[in-house]
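Inputs:
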Amino acid sequence: MSAAADMHETPEVAPTRASGRWVNAFRTPGGIVGLTLMALVAVLAIVGATGIGPDPSAQDVRESLQGPNGSHWFGTDQFGRDIFARVCSGLANSMRIALVSVTAAALGGVLLGILAGYFQGVVDRVVGVITNVLFAFPSLLLALALAATLRRSWLTVAIAIAVVYLPIFARVARGPVLTLRNAEYVLAATAIGRSRLSTLFAHVLPNILGILVVQVTLSLSWAILTEAALSFLGFGTPPPAASLGGMVYAAQTLTSVAPWMLYAPGAALILAVVGLNLLGDGLRAALDPRGGGR
Amino acid sequence: MEGLGLLSAATGLSHRVGALGRHPAARRVGEAVLTLIGVSLFTFVLLRVVPGDQITAAYGTAAGDLSPEQLEVLESYYGLDEPLVSQYFGWLGGVLTGNLGISATSHLSVLSMTAQALPITVELAVLAIGIGLLLGVPGGMLAASRPGRARDQISQLTSLVALSVPSFLLAAAVSSWLVDTVGWYPNGEGFRTLAEDPALNLQQMLLPSLVLGISIAPPILQTTRAAILSVRSEDYIRTARAKGVPDRRLQVRHILRNALIPVVTMSGLQFGFLLGGALVAEQIFAIPGIGRQVLLGLEQKEYAVVQSTVLVIAAMFVLVNLVTDLLYRLVDPRIRAS
């Protein structure tokens, strides 16, 4: 939800080379909490993805709407499905969509941004228009319009989210490249006969990795929120597959009899997003030479 | 393909216009116009990609029973047999003259539907920005008053959590709590506009604007905090302090007033987010605004309604950003000069 709020806020990280400073992110209290939360989320998602735990789609009407107990840790829903299993499977679904969409957005966006910043001219103007146009739509609305247009599956949801976040990466990559393209070592590399393309990837790309890592971490949390919102509105991951947003939607009308249906998926969503945000903040603080403005 | 050709033609055109108007404000207006052209192209292309065309939309499953001759007549009626470029310009011409299409379900024109829904969403957005500022600005001032200390960390942590709680979750939790425990839920009754019943309208707007306000408060808080910290280290603040300006006056007139400039811009940018967030808040709290219009259109497969509404929202977003940007130049002479 807050994704759009942050879209215009590019992380304030100066160009940094990948180095040992990354580890510093995990020495701050926030970074440690973030890492712990993400480890927990990852374990639950792996349980959900591999199917080690109980079956998320097994229905048993006799067991429906049970509160948390020994055999159903988080209770059951109106069809008697185990909520713990569905939360694990929902987290796996969220992580899968977030990873696929952010990877695609990062690869495409960074490529566009680097090309625009390095070659400038017409390339830059065309990329500028594309990013401006995509930024002109509120992010959730754009994701919704795309997801509703395409045939419904988890992959099309991921594609819709990727399109929404592509311009952010393009913009994040373009800025530093503009300043780096005239840096002396880049000019030197060109002078000793390296081709422009090889200079780009050998000398320019490593220097914007720091910013990109921060951006990827934060984008993962926005992607999770966007997928959840789409599923909540009925245009995300199609049922019967478990999705956290869809579970919150289903719980909404049953809170008076089965409040636990809302607690577990809600808590899982918040944990995953808080974890990623803390991790992103930690990385930003560690990778920014100015100390992240703190 | 044709789209790409048009895009590069438009880019070339803007370049020439840009060369004419060296003035930054003029260039900004040109950029906005170009973006609007791109937005209309994108929306148009999206309409073509949608499974099923206007014929399917109008006739539903009955479209499958149409004979080839009937299909041909209908295609020429809807202009589907014309080349894409002329279809685009026909559609754009319609949009520009206020013909946004007609809803097949309600038989209302999309223009009149939008005219009804838009003020409601704008009211919601204004209230939400008000709440966001009310929460975010004092929070940011509090955080900036002792950077790095307990109150700073607490407000940063609160804003991180507020940023991480999806607004649909907050809305679902709050509304079900109100219904189940408190037994007060103004949104259960039919919606009343501000003109019809101001008291009930404000009650109905309270929850959605609170939910949206909470989700935009964190960026406002962060912007306020960063702006105060950066203004405070300016030379003119040191000069004012040395001159013996009383602390309260220094805080309000010298620091806060200058720090609020980026906060105002940030609030303008939030407007677009609110138009998107309104999708969720309006759906949950049954507010018949523009977000609900998009969702209903999607549910009823009324793609003409969806496309026009999406276009209206994006155009508004571009215009609000443009106005914010121009106002910003007007308010802050430093930007005008550069």
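The mean pLDDT of chain B is 80. Flag for discussion at group meeting.
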